[in-house]
Amino acid sequence: MTLIVGVTGGIGCGKTTVTDLLAARGASVVDTDAIAHQLTGVNGAAMPAIAAAFGTTVVRPDGSLDRAAMRRLVFADTSARTRLEAILHPMIRGESEVRCDAAARANAPYVLLVVPLLVETGGYRERVARILVVDCSEEVQVSRVMARSRLSADEVRAIMATQASRAARLAAADDVVLNDDGLDSLHAQLDVLHARYLKLAEPDA
Fold first, then answer.
1. Strands annotated E in 51-173
2. CB atoms closer than 10 angstroms to residue 81
3. Which residue from 7, 51, 52, 181 lies 20 to 30 Å from 171 (Cα-Cα)?
4. What confidence score (pLDDT) does residue 122 get?
5. H or E element: which one contains 54?
């Protein structure tokens, strides 16, 4: 049975960097954020249900989700988040299962199932053998997200407040990658981690 590792971490912690580097070492990556973007993109499978639930104010002219409009709605109305998740989460879980199965059939040495809200949602824990948390200081998180997304510090901290705390993520972790100190440190940690996962993925492990 293929080893599936759940990857999580707060916004700006560098999950994509870590998974890209492990993919370069041979891992297969199934990213629930990427699946969500496809579901809410042009002709995305989730868009009819989202438009029916929230109206055209959250739909861009090309038929994709207006993420800024939805973000404002979700922060203003907690019930909107619940309704959105009720539409998206089952579709994301189903597609992620399909992709994990495909990776297993392709004989991937192990699969990284990237779930930003893995700790918060809980529904993925029974599907993964280990939880890898990508971690960095909250100050680094804020500065990274501000740089890439043009959000204010207050907006970034508002997003962080909707996620599990750093302590809660670390408490759930089987493995931790510290992503505060640049690529040299990251490569050294990932060499060790990749070897560990290859060992755990062996049939008699």
1. 110-114, 130-135
2. 14
3. 181
4. 67
5. helix 47-54
